[in-house]
Amino acid sequence: MYDGLPSPSIAPIPTGWKPIVQLVPMNDSVPLQPPRLAIVGGGLAGMAAAVAALRRGLRVEMFESRRRLGGRAGSFIDPATGTTVDHCQHVAMGCCTNWADFCRRTGVEDCFSRHRRLHFISPVGQQTDFAASRWLPAPLHLAPGLLRLRYLSLAERLGIARSLWRLARTPAQALQGTVGDWLRQQRQSPRAIERFWSVVLVSALGETVDRASLGAARKVFVDGFLAARRAYEVLIPRVPLGEIYDRRLRQWLVDHGVQVHTGTRIRRIRGDGNRVTGIELPDGTHRPFDFVIAAVPWRRVGRLFDPSIRAALPTLDAVEQIESSAITAAHLWFDRPITGLPHAALIGRLSQWLFAHGQPPIEDSPSGHYYQVVISASGGLAGRDRDEVAAEVCDDLKAVFPAAADARLLHRRVVTHGEAVFSVRPGIERLRPPQQTPLANLALAGDWTATGWPATMEGAVRSGYLGV
Predict the structure, then answer these.
(1) Hey, which of 60, 161, 348, 367 would disulfide with 123, CB 3.0 to 4.6 Å?
(2) Residue 319, Cβ neighbours under 10 Å: how many?
(3) Under DSSP, is residue 5 helix (H, G, I), strand (E, B) or coil?
């Protein structure tokens, strides 16, 4: 699974990092109980922290306010069709080595299919398949695929290659401003920006090129496309996310000794300015713990602590300045298949990525062939009628897939997550705190912490690993 990629291992340890968990050797005459760790938050970051903590021999309890684990990587049952659908499609890339390590350790790697060929559909419906060359080494392995993008002129394709080379050769710390401004300085045409740069970056960063930082864009292209031959490959869930993270991973955690408390809101993390002492439940019960990891969204973390603890965490002041970005998922059920492709990127349209889930019609049910269309950085859709959005998405599909023109839409559900991811605006890295805090037995976890990655599953897992 890792051929041609960096070794799957725990996230690199930053300079000066010290784990919150430092086990004391046992005295032969006084046996010690393993330290107790409370993880507040049952999303991907919290689960990764639990996996890392188990490896250190800790007793772990996890507290999640919702009735399910997985955080944003979750599913729901559509009442009209009875179909279990994901809130939004989650896709990993081959460069996500810590996420892959997490899946391997917890035994869920069989829940994902690896795709080495990406499918791009031009505005007129022309399909171009993008894959690595069999004989060129990285970073040249994708050059033939780039040159096959015939919905761009030859001059535009060569210009993209030159700009990619400049971006890769420029140190990350030297990059300032937005990627959109930089692309215009590189004399990238509006069509090249729309049909190449935006196609990759908006879906990867959850932000438009005119708002996303140039450093974040470099991260996507260098790590995701240029660093290794298989880094660009995508891994797509075979089953609903709830099956992976709430059922199978929950069972794995329980089987390995983690006490999982869902539907349990934590009122406060208690302690003083020197250390935490435990957590407080809604009924006022105080539960003592040796260590605590706060693995909640950045919008909630500041309200989670006793005032004395909050005063000792000045980095959280900056967290309040982090902005969010919306993602919209259009769930569509047709009476017939509209394409044989498992996924496709739609160029120059409102619809960005199509994922085919291929469920056959169910007798006496409106359920049909199910597709999900994802629109990242969808803040511009705020206020638009959902039927109007669904109609435009269907028009996009009919324009590029001939079979869609004759297909009948049986059911639709459009869901917009207004705070789906944090916005990777210029200067975002100054707002992201490290996992370690001034309190020796308190850590933070979440993709919004300083992981070096945008809002991704890889970033969430890295934060959980680094928090222990």
Answers:
(1) 348
(2) 20
(3) coil
pLDDT for 13? 41
Whole-number percent of the chain with pLDDT over 70: 91
Which residues have CB under 8 Å from 379's CB, separation 6+?
325, 326, 418
The structure tokens listed for 343 are 């996924």
Query: In this predicted model, what pLDDT tens digit does every residue of 205-248 receive, in sequence order?
Result: 999 999 999 999 999 999 999 999 999 999 999 999 999 999 99
Q: Are 339 and 404 in contact (CB under 8 A)?
A: yes
Are 415 and 364 spatial neighbours (Cβ–Cβ below 8 Å)? Answer: no
* Amino acid present at 297: P
Phi-psi region of 369 (alpha: psi -120 to 50; beta: other; left: phi over 0): beta
Phi, psi of 44 (to 5 degrees): -65, -40
Tokens of 374: 């994802």
CA distances to 170, 283, 293, 363 from 15, rounded to whole Å, are 23, 41, 21, 60
Phi, psi of 334 (to 5 degrees): -110, 165
Predicted pLDDT at 26: 38
Give me the CATH code for the 76-112+235-239+324-422 domain, please: 3.90.660.10
